[in-house]
Design goal:
This protein has 267 residues and is mainly alpha-helical. It contains ten helices and three strands, in the order H-E-H-H-E-E-H-H-H-H-H-H-H. Among the domains are: 75 residues, Arc Repressor Mutant, subunit A (Orthogonal Bundle), CATH 1.10.10.10; 87 residues, Serine Threonine Protein Phosphatase 5, Tetratricopeptide repeat, CATH 1.25.40. The longest helix has 27 residues. The two termini are 22 Å apart.
Length: 267
């Protein structure tokens, strides 16, 4: 049962409508513990995350107070007891550990679905790949960590989470393209190229979707626009792979044609 959210709404934990702590530092501490489920997060790491290079003299005792308050909030939300019957948040080895069972944390569920999709891809089952990745990405109903204040440790993890989400999104689009869903992808890819104006693979996917929808001129204009952006922003040309894609479109290479008929959308 899903109880903790980090990549969905900015509510960190749920139980009968219970919300996360309201105090920013307590929310930040809970997020740090959730990113290390079952692992010991040391007091020094907590201090580093909460105050960076300028901790107050009372930092360690303040962390202990925050932990006590987070523990009370978990109990109030019906989450004070771990699935094995022990305490959810325990003190050990000069640090703290938060017990999270499989399926309780949305990030853990997301990673499990991505792993299953990788196995399905290895088996050549694109239908299953697309379905699993659609389910995984549906968990991202908001930015990772929501409105949590992020110190140095969370900031570092936040960048990795965004890369993971984007990579999963690209994999899901690739699966949809292999399944012949190019027409249904055009609006989404148009928005994505606007959000990531220098992202080559997303532009390549947009070009492919347009080309397979009979819009070769539009696909070539996407390439031209990206090339101008590369020249202006980076002083570079697009990669060899993207230039080869443009050339294949200019020559109407049959390898670009969809192999499968268009499939129905994932339910």
């Amino acid at each position: 049962m899903l109880r903790f959210r980090m990549i969905g709404p900015p509510t960190l934990f749920l139980s009968d409508g219970a919300a996360a702590p309201r105090a920013p530092k307590q929310r930040q501490l809970l997020a740090l513990l959730l990113l290390h489920p079952g692992q010991v997060v040391t007091i020094d790491e907590c201090v580093d995350e909460l105050w960076g290079e300028r901790p107050p003299d009372s930092a360690q005792s303040t962390v202990r107070t925050y932990v006590m308050q987070v523990r009370k909030e978990l109990q109030r939300g019906g989450l004070g007891t771990a699935p094995d019957g022990g305490p959810r948040l325990v003190t050990r080895d000069r640090g703290y550990s938060l017990a999270v069972a499989p399926g309780e944390l949305d990030l853990d569920v997301f990673l499990g679905l991505v792993r299953q999709a990788g196995q399905a891809q290895a088996a050549g089952d694109d239908q299953q790949v697309g379905w699993l990745l659609h389910r995984a990405l549906d968990l991202w109903s908001g930015p990772a960590l929501g409105d949590i204040t992020c110190g140095p440790i969370l900031q570092m993890r936040l960048g990795g989470l965004e890369e993971l989400r984007l990579g999963t999104l690209e994999d899901r689009i690739d699966a949809d393209l292999r399944l012949g869903r190019h027409r249904g992808l055009i609006s989404e890819l148009k928005m994505l190229t606007q959000r990531y104006p220098l992202h080559e693979n997303i532009h390549a996917q947009f070009m492919t979707a347009l080309y397979r929808s009979g819009r070769r001129a539009n696909a070539l204009e996407v390439y031209a626009r990206l090339r101008r952006a590369f020249s202006t922003e980076l002083g570079l040309e697009p990669s060899l792979q993207l230039r080869r894609l443009q050339q294949a479109m200019l020559t109407a290479d049959p390898a670009l044609d969809p192999v499968l008929p268009q499939a129905s959308a994932v339910g």
